[in-house]
Design a protein that fits this description.
Blueprint lengths: L8 H11 L34 E5 L11 E5 H6 L1
Antiparallel strand pairs: 1-2
This protein binds zinc ion (2 copies).
The site of one zinc ion has 6 residues, from loops.
Protein name: HNH endonuclease
Organism: Dehalococcoides mccartyi (strain ATCC BAA-2266 / KCTC 15142 / 195) (Dehalococcoides ethenogenes (strain 195))
Amino acid sequence: MVYEVNMYSSVVEQAWQRCGGKCECKDQSHAHTYIRCNRKLVYENKDKSRIDGWKVIYLTGAAADTAENIRIYCQSCFKQD
Ligand SMILES: [Zn+2]
Ligand SMILES: [Zn+2]
């Protein structure tokens, strides 16, 4: 279960820098299994339903809106959760 994040863009910006423009998902139940997804994403396509679109999600149990508590997910990984 993931929650979509609506937060300050500066925090999302930090997370985007960290992920290097690639999906950060490491969910073992996905097709990429034990390795990071790393799908290439396009910054302008945030929240768009495209192959290079992406979403920001909270980590389970995250209590604060910080870059450490969020992950950049591609649309494909976002939909699998
Ligand atoms: Zn992904
Ligand atoms: Zn995934």
